[in-house]
Amino acid sequence: MDQPVTGLLPSVPLREAVFIARGLTKAYRMGDVSVQALRGVDLDLFDGEFAVLLGPSGSGKSTLLNILGGLDTPTTGKVHYRDHDLFQADDEALTRYRREHVGFVFQFYNLIPSLTARENVALVTDIAENPLRPEDALELVGLSARLDHFPAQMSGGEQQRVAIARAVAKRPDVLLCDEPTGALDVHTGKVVLEVLARANVELKTTVGVITHNAAIGQMGDRVITMHDGRIATVTHNATRAKASDISW
Amino acid sequence: MKALTRKLLRDLVRMRGQALAIALVVASGVAVFVSTMSALDSLTASRANFYEHHRFADVFAQARRVPAAVTDRIAEIPGVGRVMDRIVAEVTIDLAGIDEPIVGRVISIEPGKEPLLNVPYVRTGRLPLPGRDDEVLINEAFAKARSLSLGDRFRVLLNGRSKELSIVGIALSPEYVFQVGTGQLMPDDARFGVIWMAREPLSAALDMAGVANDFSISLSRGASELDVMESVDRVLSPYGGGGAYSRARHPSDSMLADELRQLQTTATLIPGIFLAVAAFLLNVVMTRTVQTERTQIATLKAFGYTSGEIARHYLSLAVLLAGVGSLLGTGVGAALGEAMLRLYAEYYKFPLTPLTITFRTIATGAAVTLASAAVGAFRAVRKAASEAPAEAMKPEPPARFTKSWIERLGVGKLLSPSGRMVLRNIARRPLRAALSIVGMSLAAAILVVGMFSVDAFNFALDVQFGMAQTEDAVVTFTQPIAQGAGTELRHLPGVMQSETFRAVGVTLRHGHRKWRTALIGLPTDCQLKRLVDSDRNVYAIPPSGVALGATIAGKLGVSRGDVISVTPMEGDKTTRDLTVSLIVDEVIGGSAVMEIGQLHRMLGEDLRASGAFVSLDPAHESRFYNRVKNVPAVMSVTMRRSQLETFDKALDRSVGVMRSIEIILASIIAFAVVYNNARIALAERSRELASLRVLGFSRAEVSRILLGEMAFATLLAIPLGLFLGYAMAAGVVDAYATELLRIPLIVDPATYATAALTVGISALLSALIVRRRIDHLDLVGVLKTRD
Ligand SMILES: Nc1ncnc2c1ncn2[C@@H]1O[C@H](COP(=O)(O)OP(=O)(O)OP(=O)(O)O)[C@@H](O)[C@H]1O
Ligand SMILES: [Mg+2]
Predict the structure, then answer these.
(1) What percent of chain A has pLDDT over 90?
(2) Is residue B70 included in any domain, yes or no?
(3) For helices B699-736 and B749-775, what crossing angle results, to 10°?
(4) Distance from the CA of B229 to the CA of which of A89, B222, B348, B759 falls in 20 to 30 A?
(5) At which of B254, B275, B300 does a domain end?
(6) Residues 85-144 in A contacting B (C-alpha not used; CB under 8 Å)
(7) Is this model's pTM higher than 0.80 or not?
(8) Contact A243, A194 (CB under 8 A)
(9) Is residue B398 less than 8 Å (CB to CB) from chain A?
(10) Do B306 and A114 touch (CB under 8 A)?
């Protein structure tokens, strides 16, 4: 992943850094053993950029994303989102931060089983300032025909698309996605990536995507690889590939 | 509608079985509370109304022959409002076609004038008119029980002379809301008649012109009841008086007060139990719900839902259940209250105001219900609110299993693989297992409590009438007569055995405590009346000192060997000291008994008898009754058979309706608890069970794991519950004890068996439902989604 292969979109010029993380460590204590998930991460994410996070399993990608999203706090280090200090913030402040700024797509979809696709999206739009209509959000991911299906009545990929619609629907400032295409075939994977790219371009959303699929890196402004709890490499793409143009 | 609200409703629909069970338990508690409270409110209001409008007196006193001038002296006592003097006499009523003698009480009234106090409430007819000497008013209960109506005539034996009377009115009276005749323990409508008769013919018949023997006194505002009673005693003492008593000791009012107090106990105790169970169920259900929805909660939080919103979400689930139950319960309670009041209308002899369901009752019921729901849900809600949002990113970690200690003992080898799984599951969540066991045992316990009172009552009757009181009739004389004359009773037809006794009203004192009662003198070898305790031990009458029932001993705070002072109300009234030589834990009544010779000596009299116990030849019973009611010296005859009947009736009344309601309610609880347990176990384990099925386990094998756990819990819960029930019954016995009656703590094996069986059957039914659900487990669906 050193060179962008195809480039049709110009890469976003680097603007102000919205996320600033310095010396982040995260240790999980499990009884007597402590697992060091992050071992000193320094990272900036810039306003409106599309960042792709790569790395082997267990390297700390999800942990980092959790901290950026205000789901978790680092053990040591500093982390800011604009004027929010995410390290010092208490539970209430983090909740407000997530509510006002962040959209999540989880590795395990995390749909509410007792709610339909439409209602799962509404769950988030109910508490958002200026959201999309749930129906429109679902249309973006090509699920207009599935509005009233419960999670148990949908395939894994469909569930994942609902999860993405749910994250996009609130028009978040930051969209953090943990393997959003993990369960999808090539075609629907591209549909989903397209949605993320549109949110990034049209709504100026800052996007962070974790993936095991190196090809997706072509879509990003930057590709960040992690290894063993640290940032290993950061690559700038001169141009960004369209989702429809990449192949895997 | 908000998506979160929708989730709430869907969750409710999904757990509708459990939700219904909880709502029913709540509803049961609220129904009992609302109905009993409302009935209580109505009865209390009715009593207050009736007492006020019919001027029920505050202080009562009896004496022998008191000249009219003395009444004025009583009126002058500071604190006395009004005084009414009357002639009251015990008579035997002789109804045409009825052999058995009936106890009657004749009360004088001034014809044409409304009495100052204790005004009879004439329901039909009118008061006797001046100059019509045979006109009388009788009490409604007696009239109904004996089908007497206006214009009917009947005879009474007045001072040895038979007199025919004519009924011109039928009435209620604040003095006889409960009409308990002399020698009766319970109200007996058919065998006790109250007769209001013009004073002049009554005093003529009794040879009591210008004198009175009964005083009713009302107090002026702020007066001291005690001071007035003491002054009245002083004034009446030369005339054989001296036993003034307040409403609290008035037979009718004290019985009414007892009834209302018991109702109050019911209104708090039973709903208390139900709401505690509901809180417990909610706790279990909510804890489990929050547990399985951990990732959902974390997801909501990740999206920015606040802890407060999450807490509110889960709390509303609990509140909704409680609210629905409360609403349902209030509705049912209103209907039940009406039914109860109709029942009481038969039983309480006063005009009842309509059922008053106050806002306070409803609000209290709802508030207590919601509070208990909140308490039940508290732990779960707090856990939900404090769930970390990062949990949303992780799959649920696999549960940690270890070999249980039971297995380490080597038992495991004896078990099949599914047996081992059962064991490990219980060992993994010992607290949860313990909770379900506690829940089911509570169900069994409540059943025991609901049913034991019948056992206890039957036992009490058995001991009282099978051992303590074996006479067929008690004959009371108009006044103490020579003992020799008393023995003459033996010559009446049908009498097989006759034993005379002496009874005298006394005040017992110990320290500053005092108690008024009748002191009974009995021969040491008395056969027909014996001292029996609740373990069926029979005690001989002690040759010296006094034997006290445990209730009286308790009132006086004495134990065996203590010395009490005794002041008789007749004879030479000097106070003497007596040693308490025996305390008997009687089942019914508060006896004070001593050897009859000692009593004579204490009273400084020759051998005299107040009455006699007789046993009868059943073949000649009616001949005996026909003769005895015409014996002038006989004031009243009380039959054991009729006492038993009234007890049975009283039992029927409480058992017939309240008991069966309680048992139904207890069964609801039993089923609700057991069913809930089963459903929760199923929900918690459906993933695991589905996985096993996918691995190739058969339905039967999979069911065995879950049902094995249930069976294990049930088998432990039943004995624990029976024990718990016994303990709770002991508490109920204390709560319901009255002066006269203390329900013994007796639980029949049949009651235990029924309780065990009910829980067992509930468990079996639940198991069947669970089994069916396991059979229909949607393998793919269960495994596809995370909870
Ligand atoms: N709650 C936790 N308790 C203990 N250890 C944890 C916890 N969460 C993560 N870890 C450990 O921290 C390390 C980093 O985990 P993380 O989930 O960030 O990896 P990842 O890069 O997202 O991996 P994957 O690509 O497999 O999702 C791993 O070794 C993991 O075992
Ligand atoms: Mg991960």
Answers:
(1) 52
(2) yes
(3) 150
(4) B348
(5) B254
(6) 91-92, 94-96, 98-100, 102, 104, 106-108, 110-115, 119-120, 122-124, 126-127
(7) no
(8) yes
(9) no
(10) no
